[in-house]
């Protein structure tokens, strides 16, 4: 991987990108797909609330290392790739709930799409509401309609992307470095939204490997 993570992991927005894999891509890919399918099948077939709670909070206790090692190098439009992105989005939210809530709220104020409705965060959206949304989406991966959970995550990413762009526009003159960082972050969230949306469509067509 490109970075070494140690518990507790601090994962900044600037690292919201793909990781490098190991020396045997075929083996890594096989393990990623096998573990993702096995985990999802086991939990969805028997959604024990205690098990689901542990999975939702897994990175809070163990950091993101194990999840990253399993799934970060998977292709974006795959089951392990989708799971990695859901966990990563939740991690980013929990590391900066105040900043994320501000960007999300700005996005809801300027978007003309129905993404805030699809994402389903309580309004107005503060730090508590944005953390609750992250947990609801991840929980839905294991206990609800998988494609709907992916759609909610994609909508969340689009709202954040729009919020980042709007704040970047406001900061362009007074804080050009911040504007550049926010523009880069907006692109990453927009890309992730597209990837998650594609995964939702593939799941519905029973083609998400």
Q: Could you characterize what this model shows?
A:
The protein has 209 residues and is mainly α. The protein has one domain (22-209). Helix content is 71%, strand content 0%. The chain contains 10 helices and no strands. The protein has helices spanning 25-45, 49-56, 58-62, 65-71, 79-95, 97-110, 115-119, 127-143, 146-171, 176-204. The longest helix is centred in the C-terminal third of the chain and has 29 residues, at 176-204. It is globular, with a radius of gyration of 17 Å. The two termini are 23 Å apart. 37% of the residues are buried.
Sequence-ordered SSE layout with sheet pairings:
Elements: H1 25-45, H2 49-56, H3 58-62, H4 65-71, H5 79-95, H6 97-110, H7 115-119, H8 127-143, H9 146-171, H10 176-204
Region (Disordered): 1-22
Keywords: DNA-directed RNA polymerase, Transcription
GO cellular component, one term: DNA-directed RNA polymerase complex
Notable characteristics:
disordered N terminus; 0% strand; 10 helices; 209 residues
Largest sheet: none
Number of β-strand runs: 0
Class from secondary-structure proportions: mainly alpha
Radius of gyration, CA atoms, in whole angstroms: 17 Å
N-to-C CA distance:
23 Å
Helix content: over 70%
| Tertiary shape | globular
Query: How do the SSEs run, as a string of H and E?
Result: HHHHHHHHHH
Mean pLDDT: 88
Total domain modules: 1
Report low-confidence residues grouped into runs of 5 or more.
Answer: 1-22
Note the beta-strand portion. Answer: under 5%
Organism: Cryobacterium algoritolerans
Protein name: DNA-directed RNA polymerase subunit beta
GO cellular component, one term: DNA-directed RNA polymerase complex
Keywords: DNA-directed RNA polymerase, Transcription
């Amino acid at each position: 991987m490109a970075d070494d993570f140690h518990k507790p992991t601090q994962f900044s927005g600037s690292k919201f990108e793909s990781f490098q894999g190991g020396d045997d891509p075929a083996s890594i890919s096989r393990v990623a797909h096998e573990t993702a399918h096995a985990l999802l099948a086991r939990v969805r077939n028997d959604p024990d609330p205690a098990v689901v709670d542990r999975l939702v909070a897994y990175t809070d206790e163990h950091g993101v290392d194990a999840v990253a090692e399993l799934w970060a190098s998977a292709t974006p439009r795959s089951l392990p790739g989708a799971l990695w992105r859901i966990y990563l989005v939740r991690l980013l939210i929990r590391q900066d709930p105040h900043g994320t809530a501000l960007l999300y709220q700005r996005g809801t104020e300027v978007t003309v799409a129905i993404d805030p409705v699809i994402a389903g965060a309580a309004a107005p959206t503060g730090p508590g509401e944005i953390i609750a949304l992250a947990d609801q989406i991840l929980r839905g991966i294991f206990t609800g309609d998988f494609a709907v959970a992916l759609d909610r995550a994609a909508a969340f990413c689009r709202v954040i992307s729009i919020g980042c762009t709007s704040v970047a526009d406001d900061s362009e003159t007074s804080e050009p470095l911040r504007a550049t960082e926010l523009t880069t972050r907006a692109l990453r969230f927009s890309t992730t939204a597209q990837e998650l949306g594609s995964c939702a469509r593939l799941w519905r067509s029973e083609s998400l490997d």
